[in-house]
Write a structure and sequence with these properties.
mainly beta, globular
Length: 124
């Protein structure tokens, strides 16, 4: 269970909100995407991968040069930024080891259980 200070640091420096008494191997700095909000009493196992955006499939190329400003080729991202598409995990959620949360899932509701190794493609 993480301290109030730890939760405040995660929010201030990593833009991840963690509720009271939530815990897990995936709650370390840099493990979760910017904007992620986690409710109270959640359990997050190791190896969880959360994707917040996809390569655009309606373009002539899938390469990040054409949509990601971090490559230095374009000035601004041409698809939704990670921080603009946050994942909300409500209270009392359990996410098992090595689960994958895809960008189409924006919310995991109160009391949900995500099995180890699951691939989540929509809201739960």
């Amino acid at each position: 269970m993480w301290s109030r200070t730890y939760r405040e640091l995660m929010k201030s420096y990593y833009f991840v909100e963690i509720g009271r008494h939530s815990y897990g191997a995936s709650l370390w700095p840099g493990e979760l995407p910017e904007g992620t909000r986690i409710g109270n009493y959640c359990s997050l196992a190791a190896g969880i991968v959360i994707f917040r955006r996809n390569h655009p499939t309606d373009r002539f190329s899938q390469h990040p040069f054409f949509f990601n400003a971090e490559t230095g080729v374009i000035e601004d991202d041409t698809i939704e930024a990670v921080r603009d598409h946050p994942l909300v995990i409500e209270h009392d959620v359990w996410i098992g080891a090595n689960a994958i949360i895809t960008p189409r899932c924006a919310r995991i509701e109160h009391g949900a259980i995500i099995a180890a190794g699951a691939i989540v493609t929509k809201n739960v």
